[in-house]
Specification:
Mean pLDDT is about 85; it is low at about 1-35. The chain has helices at about 1-20, 180-190, and strands spanning about 25, 35, 40-50, 55-65, 70-80, 80-90, 100-110, 110-120, 125-130, 135-145, 150-165, 170, 190-204. It has a single domain, classed as Porin (Beta Barrel), CATH 2.40.160. The longest helix is centred in the first third of the chain and has 19 residues, at about 1-20. By secondary structure, the protein is mainly beta. The two termini are about 25 Å apart. It has 2 helices and 13 strands, in the order αββββββββββββαβ. The strands form 3 sheets. It has an 8-stranded antiparallel beta barrel with strand order 3-4-5-6-7-10-11-13.
Length: about 200
């Protein structure tokens, strides 16, 4: 339900942007390229990915603060429950397009108490685990393309996330987890290679 509402909101934003932001057509090349006559004041978007800054599915906003610089933040859900982030980006292209490079911080909320049947050194047992909050810092490279003719953007990104929190989880029930279970938890924990994609819709 929440995702459907967000999609409807973003569609409305895009429709409004189409009325407010005319474009010029560059005929200097064989393929017409649409150039924005007015850069958006800020962007509202959706994103997803692996170790994505706003989780497996998140919403975000991005505000240009200088000609080639923006700051942003977002919230979403991921493998470690809720996730929040803040970031700064530097763009090489006009109107926050083309290549960009960014960095920032993420905060993953974790879970205070999770009961699950996990593999321990004695076999499968009911285990109570606490996933602790984790703070990460990350760097990323982005590639942005126009989405339509009126200021929307599509992007992909890759990067790396570094965990600043040393202890990621705690076994509250006293069980000894099997090494395979530990590896599985490490994969779920925030940190490591980052890959994502997203859509940004303009607010003029």
């Amino acid at each position: 339900m929440l995702v459907a509402v967000l999609i409807i909101i973003c569609t409305c934003i895009r429709s409004n942007a189409q009325e407010m932001n005319p474009v010029q057509k560059d005929t200097s090349s064989k393929r017409h390229r649409h150039i924005l006559t007015k850069c958006p004041r800020w962007y509202l978007g959706l994103s997803t990915g692996f170790n994505n800054e706003s989780g497996a599915l998140g919403i975000n906003f991005d505000v240009p603060v200088a000609k080639q610089v923006s700051v942003g933040a977002g919230v979403g859900v991921g493998t470690w429950a809720g996730k929040f982030y803040t970031e700064g980006r530097y763009y090489l292209g006009h109107c926050n397009r083309g290549w960009a490079f960014g960095g920032g911080f993420t905060y993953s909320t974790g879970v205070s108490k999770l009961r699950a049947n996990l593999l321990t050194i004695y076999g499968n047992e009911d285990v109570v685990v606490k996933f602790k909050p984790i703070v990460n810092t990350f760097i990323a490279a982005y590639r942005f393309w126009n989405l339509g003719r009126h200021g929307g953007r599509f992007y992909i990104n890759i990067g790396y996330s570094f965990a600043l929190s040393k202890t990621r989880y705690e076994v509250l029930s006293g069980h000894m987890l099997n090494s395979l279970t530990v590896k599985g938890i490490d994969i779920l924990a925030p940190g490591g290679f980052v890959a994502g994609l997203g859509f940004s819709f303009p607010i003029h």
